[in-house]
Input
Amino acid sequence: MADRSGMKKGLTRYGDEGFALFLRKAFIKAMGYSDAALDRPIVGIADTFSGFNPCHRTAPDLVAAIKRGVAMAGGLAVEFPTVSLHESFAYPTSMLYRNLMAMDTEEMLGALPMDAAVMIGGCDKTVPAQLMAAASANVPSLIVVTGPMMTGDHKGERLGACTDCRRLWGLHRAGEIDEGEIEAIGGKLMPTAGTCMVMGTASTMACMTEALGMMLPGGAAIPAVMADRLRHAEASGARAVAMAKEKLTPDRIMTPQAFANALRVLLAIGGSTNGLIHITAVAGRLGIEVDLAAFDAMGRETPVLVDLKPSGAGYMEDLHKAGGLTTVLRELGELLHLDALTCSGKTLGENVADAPAGWAQDVVRPRTDPVYAEGGIAVLRGNLCPGSAIIKQSGASPELMRHSGRAVVFDSLEDLTARIDDPDLDVTADDVLVLRNAGPKGAPGMPESGYIPIPKKLAQQGVRDMVRISDARMSGTAFGSVVLHVCPEAAVGGPLALVRDGDTITLDVPARKLALEVPEDELAKRRAAWSPPETARAERGYKRLHLDQVSQADEGCDLDFLTQRPFTAKTPV
Ligand code: FES
Output
């Protein structure tokens, strides 16, 4: 059986291929298909609709539009379900399940008879999981995101999830917004279907995916409820049929140059710190290592151009009106690898050239007048983070970018919850809040708890920002002087585990330094006395697999056996 496409792909092993094909076709005819339909190229649609995922509420509409596009191009579309993850519905954190979704999606891409796939992503962890799956399964694939929500409003103020959720909750904690009003605001923050409409992780991953070449041009910023979103989905379905015929596999698109484009865009959009972890995991699936020193150097020459919250002022619908990611790509110009191939079948440069000419707008700034002079994310080194740590400098307070302070240490999330608002907590605004055992193994799952709340008594005095350090992550919608992803994490014995209340910690972002000002002989004594925390134990199931296998943040937090080692290439190049 030479032809292995369509229904003949990956025949179930009965020891008789003719029978396997006969039985498969007999079964699928129960769905009402004709032989003519079954002879077409098959495009799988990874349908991530879930009643627990409001960011994917429009998935059924997108499935219909993708199917229409596939049929128009002469293919047969067949949808299949996968794990779907929403940020607020996965306990203890959606990050724990990103790799599970990636495994599920990868296995279905390989197991089911499809010649190409369109994957419907959107909420934070879904797109990274799908890119990881596509990289490993290497089935021609592209991604359609559900798209961002429109903005809401409250008493004349424009609101967006979830930067304003956090900002207004902070005011509520400080006593400036009462119980009744914060409840009313809760009804206004998510006014439509779609993903968070600031430059949070979902928007960041959508933009990076388009820059990476795994999404058709223009797809990142179209709001979820606009008709253009459905036309984009239709075009993606049609393009998937062509990709199947061209055998345009992800390894031809996701090259070191393409990852460099995605990383450049991450910096230029003031994107989520999570984008770095996720793209590291995706690249690792292809044996490509993200070189953090090169990424930091790239950041020094890549200004933040996009004026969206949390680094700036606007929302994703504003970026869409300004021409979407194409406007950013056009402005970045020769800083990008414009010859990188994309899923459109054309290069990134050709995609930009094919787009309508730009127009006057104030959302995407020229490189000569950026929102922030450097890239959004800086990579830190020092004796507190030998592996690395990062800070979203574009969302931090300028006066705290060089700061020394006394450590106030929280040993776990439980400890943080129990003591942060204690009126007797010995803390001042100049102190450095430290949270540990909240990393990939420590929590487990590296929750978005790095945005340590300002202690209530300080918040009530008007303190809005402090230096905060942890081995956790932070929501892409959050802001502040927050050092994240300290590697190695405390739960595996990283130096964060050795910090004590009252130690001096120095942060120097311009020098890219994070130092624990304690003599090495004292640290050696503490290290000798250290023992692993009681957290992070699992006897069985997926959680045990995660704890046994998860890598550190600088390696993408993938399961170790899913990363393709040894690395054969580096990015950014
Ligand atoms: Fe889904 Fe923010 S919670 S994108």
Notes: Residues 227-246 form the longest helix (20 residues). The chain has a mean pLDDT of 96. Residues 55, 86-88, 123-124, 195-196, 200, 202 surround FE2/S2 (inorganic) cluster (CB under 6 Å). The radius of gyration is 24 Å.
